[in-house]
Amino acid sequence: MSARSRLGDTVRDVLQTGFRMAPWPTETGLRAVGDPGPGSPVLITGNYDLTVRRVLRALRGVDAWLLVAPSQGINVWCASSGGHLSTHQVVTALKTSGIEERVWHRRAILPQLAATGVLARDVSRRCGWKLRFGPVYAEDLPAYLANDGVKTDAMRHVHFGVRERLEMAAAWATPTALVLGGLAALSRPAWCPPVVVMTALMATAVFLVYDRLPEPRRLVLGAAGITVALAAVLSAGGGPGALMAAGVVPALLTALLTFDYTGSTPVEGGSHFEERHWQIALDVDRCKGVYNCWAVCPEACFEKREELRVVELAHDDRCIRCGACVVQCPVDALAFEDESGQRIEPDQIRRFKLNLLGQRRVSPEG
């Protein structure tokens, strides 16, 4: 890759990280990675540009076919949860991409986080392709492929490490800083840089330490932000207006940046979803030990009980209600229960996906 190409790639990374919540579509279709042949693995992902480029980087030195399916330019997890990357999109991509003329096998690998929206057995029934759910992260693909498709525990789990936290901080800070900084520039231009800096600092604090703060954590964070802002204004000799802004802006930022914190991270289930109080329920009598739930759960809620050929819901406190286990269970041994204990049938979770308001009113099949 030339220096100019690397620079362009870096610029796209920065823009797409800062505006991560906006769609960034790239061209769909089949791509050859390295020098693939008829026996090479087939990988499927959505057409979110940042994801596709990360997959291509991770696969350097690997010979494979990458099939980019339409997901409206949205990342895999959000697209699958919202019905934009579903069984229909994957089947259509497999049938129309020409991959069936390129390989002798009928096996494909999807990102694990697509399990909320793509029903593997329906893909097999509709077009004869067998799907497996690969690792959560693209960087684990070479090791996964070298290990004959066996995932380690680390490959199955969603992590929220420093890199992921800083990326989410940037995704919230960038549009927020543009709006608040722009308003400040229109009214008091001298306030624009401090507002932008405060926004960046508050967003970084939210995603680095918010889940570790004591309750009431929103008040704790807001008070800390106000204290820092007031100290900065006083040290700079600011007047009454600046002092008032130092009290208001951090409070406003705290409210904005923590409004959907749980929905923006894998730490907790979305607090604004209608089913935020639902609980996952396991019917042991139905369980046949297929272990699909164990393979696709991003929070490692399940443990295998090989001697009984069943799973155990050993860590239900970790559940973020993504529904992947319910969608993939072939015997409907898993379901949600609402606050009254009423069972929500798995077919409802499979058919209706979450819209941006956290309501299951979007059907992936149209």
Polypeptide structure, described:
The protein is α+β, with helices and mostly antiparallel strands and 366 residues long. The chain has 15 helices and twelve strands. The chain folds into three domains: 3-155, 3-Layer(aba) Sandwich (Rossmann fold); 162-264, no CATH class; 279-362, Alpha-Beta Plaits (2-Layer Sandwich), CATH 3.30.70. Strands 1-3-2 form a three-stranded mixed beta sheet, sandwiched between helices. α2 links the parallel β2 (42-46) and β3 (64-69). α4 runs parallel beside α5 and α10 packs antiparallel against α11 (240-258). It is globular, with a radius of gyration of 23 Å. The two termini are 41 Å apart.
Helix-strand layout with pairing:
Blueprint (H helix, E strand, L loop, with lengths): L2 H16 L10 E5 L8 E5 L2 H10 L5 E6 L6 H6 L5 H10 L10 E4 L9 H8 L2 E4 L7 H6 L6 H4 L5 H26 L4 H18 L7 H19 L4 H19 L2 H4 L14 E4 L9 H5 L5 E4 L4 E4 L10 H5 L5 E4 L5 E2 L1 H6 L1 E2 L5 E3 L4
Parallel strand pairs: 2-3, 4-5
Antiparallel strand pairs: 1-3, 6-9, 7-8, 9-10, 11-12
SSE series: HEEHEHHEHEHHHHHHHEHEEHEEHEE
The global form is globular
Low-confidence stretches: none
Distance between the termini: 41 Å
Beta fraction of the residues?
A: 5-15%
Total helix count? 15
Q: What's the count of strands? A: 12
Q: What order do the strands of the largest sheet run in, or round the barrel if closed? A: 1-3-2
Using the 3D structure, state the CATH architecture of the largest domain.
3-Layer(aba) Sandwich
Q: Structural class per helix/strand content?
A: alpha+beta
Helix percent band: 40-55%
Radius of gyration: 23 Å
CATH fold call of the largest domain = Rossmann fold
Biggest pleated sheet = 3 strands, mixed
Mean pLDDT: 91
What's the number of domains?
3
Indicate the CATH class of the largest domain.
Answer: Alpha Beta
